[in-house]
Amino acid sequence: MTLPTPTPRFLPAGTLALTAAAALVVSTVVPASAEPAIEPYTTADNVEIIFDATEVDVPGASSALDAEDALAESVIDDVLDFRSTELSTLDAQDRDVRVDIRETSDDAAFGVAIVTAPEVEGEEPYAWLFAAELDSDGWEVGLEGTEEFSAILAGSDLMDTEQRETVAASTDPEQISPMAYTGVGLPFSIGTSMVMTGGPHGFSSGPPYSSVDFAGGNGQARAARGGYAYSLCSGWTRVIHDNGYSTDYYHLEDYQWLPGNNVGVGHYLGTQGNSLCAGGATTGAHIHFALRAYTDPNAAGWYVGLGGRTLGGWTFVEGASYGGYAYRDGVGTVYPGGSLYNYGF
To answer: Residue 151 half-sphere exposure, CB side, CA atoms within 13 Å?
Structure first.
């Protein structure tokens, strides 16, 4: 039996090229489901979220994240941007990120963000108060010392009125004015003395040299000026003063927890100690005392160098880290290892 000869079929001109191109496109398209998903910050091993579900009701839950996780994501994003780093980089440095959600009101939130440090000499933690506001696009976050922080806080119902207005105004970097006079004392009672165990040095391994270490005396840490006091973790307090400065007190023991209390100058904060609630290191019980400035253009809402500034009646001069000295006209010069008397401000 003879099979019929098939009739030739011709494709229109260009069809072969088009078909080949289409096949190439099909072969190179990757299904969306195969693209790697971006993991939320909150799933990382070096992230901790702290909040009391019985006291803090965080708004803004989504199908993807719990409400507190959604807020923490935005806070962490701001922290990483401020420090110009990545979460993986911090992890490699043995640093964790904590987001402590302290208060909410309507669509606003307030709390503390901390980047911890490894327990190694010369490594210190960082911390900020934060304010956040929820809108249709998600959380807008402002870290302490930024315009966003002051604006969000001032426009919210967070805190009581006087506290909110004072903190927002005191930390507003728009009120720029170089300040030669700090109006801040030393971290122990006026009229008493402690040993300056470490001269001006950084809160981390380098400048600005914003910090001084004290020990001895009766060992008690006390507010260097009145203001609103915030416990950043158990052993680390920040007092925001009404003059564009705040002061930090770290390594404290016998600690008084202060969630925004209005305190006066000389208020008891704790005692000199070796607490490492956010990491770092100590070589003996002391008070790590540091100065931050919000309205000083040299600080931009961060720690500010002590060189040339007067605290407790003493003007500090920077040298090598932990070196330098303090002097007072008519009294003399004190080097590390010497005793400083707190004349107040």
So the answer is: 9
